[in-house]
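Service request form, structural biology core

Requester: graduate student, group of Dr. S.
Request type: structure prediction, single chain
Budget code: on file
Notes: please return the result as structure tokens.

Sequence provided:
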Amino acid sequence: FTVDELTKAFDFDRVDTVGPVFDLEKLTWLNGTYLREQSDAEFLAAAQPFLPAGVSGAAITPVLAALRERTKRLSDLPDQLTWLATDPPVPTVSELTAKGLPVETLPDTLGAIAETLERLDPFEPATIESAIDGVVTQREANRRRLFMSTRVAVVGGPVSPPLHETIAALGRERTVARLRAAA
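Core staff response, request fulfilled:
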């Protein structure tokens, strides 16, 4: 509508006098939809002011698609990226084994993943996923359980973007150090 068209089409008889309803849940859903439709560059530009201190847009590039899919409000980003901004405390054995590997295989398996990733070149999501799958095959481990223990060791909890992308964003040195500390 132009202003003239709007003026001609507007009629006070069609204005509802009942109080409007503000639905925060629907607004949050709509905001998430808007964020998912943005390009990588638009999402990065919008996210920049909300990134935790010390985290740049380049650091989240490997996890960008997953973050965009999971983000309903840009203010959610600091909670989703705490594992990237600061080193979490070393997880306990019970945290590592809950829905993860059995305690008797945990140290050796996490150590094997650390060794594999330390030698990996190039260090990018596709090669990381292949390398970890190689450890799964070599150790005849349950892939889901191995990924869960690895995720908890790397990010300090059971929730993160896809593991291989998370590891790529974190970087080789920090990932290997966290895996060895957890082992």
